[in-house]
Amino acid sequence: MNYALPTKFSLESLRLEAVTVCVGFDDLLDLTLPLNHPHLDTMIVVTSHDDRRTQQVAKKHGALCVQTDLFTKNGRHFNKGAAINAGLGRFQYHGWRLHLDADIILPDNFRRMLFNHTHLDRNSIYGADRIDVIGLDQLRQLRDQWQKSPQAAWSFLLDPVHQHPIGARYVDTLRGYVPIGFFQLWHASAQKDYPWSLGTAQHDDILFAEQWPRTHRVHLPTVITYHLCAQPPALGENWEGHRSQPRIG
Q1: Contact 214, 177 (CB under 8 A)
Q2: How far apart are CA 7 and CA 20, in angstroms?
Q3: What number of CA atoms fall less than 13 Å from residue 169's CA on the CB side?
Q4: DSSP state of 6
């Protein structure tokens, strides 16, 4: 009797890897990386050759660090898409893949909720909601609250367990819902390159997600992420790659 061998995709269906681009945000990465890394099979940090602090943070927390000069390729101010592609080439498995901003924190029970309580379609790209966490005091409060009541509690509740409201989603009259760059989840079988668009971080993520048709751009209902910042953020403040927020501390 002949038995079909499992494919590489089925063998690695519960693998989860992430890539994060970080230049000049090492202080935030030092706080988010140890919280996110336990959820992941591979954590890839892409940074510049000159950003020694980010390189040290990645090494400290056991992440794979990719150094590249593509941020300024062809005279661009901040070619984030090109840098992300440098990280995508270092994925180790044929499972689920995640692009995550350096200032994003995954919730306490992220992996369990993703694989046990979410119907994931390999042909779709997923986005998630986020809530601002402003300063170290609010971060400590959030982590303390997770100990009392996790985000997914009582087997049926999804509670942000934080004082700020959920942030806006990207939905417009032309494109509909688009998962934007702070959190984009897709399967290896549907892998696509990140665009080298205008050379800033403003549109690369939109163009990347639009490579999936609208029917396969899906909002993830089972988790809420957190956006760590030193002060209340302003729209578009980091798109050019120049930091406007103070260091957190």
Answers
A1: yes
A2: 28
A3: 20
A4: P
How far is 110 from 158, CA to CA, in rounded Å?
12
Burial status of residue 216 (CB atoms within 10 A of its CB: 0-12, 13-18, 19 or more): middle
Q: Which helix (H) or strand (E) holds 42?
A: strand 42-47
Q: Are 91 and 188 in contact (CB under 8 A)?
A: yes
Dihedrals φ, ψ of 8, to 5°?
A: -60, -30
Task: Give 36-95 pLDDT, tens digit per residue.
Answer: 999 999 999 999 999 999 999 999 999 999 999 998 877 777 788 899 999 999 999 999
Sequence-distant (6+) residues with CB within 8 A of 197 are 81, 203, 204, 207
Place of tokens 């942000």: 160
What is the spatial distance between Cα 184 and Cα 166, in angstroms, rounded to a whole number?
17
Rounded to two decimals, the pTM is: 0.93
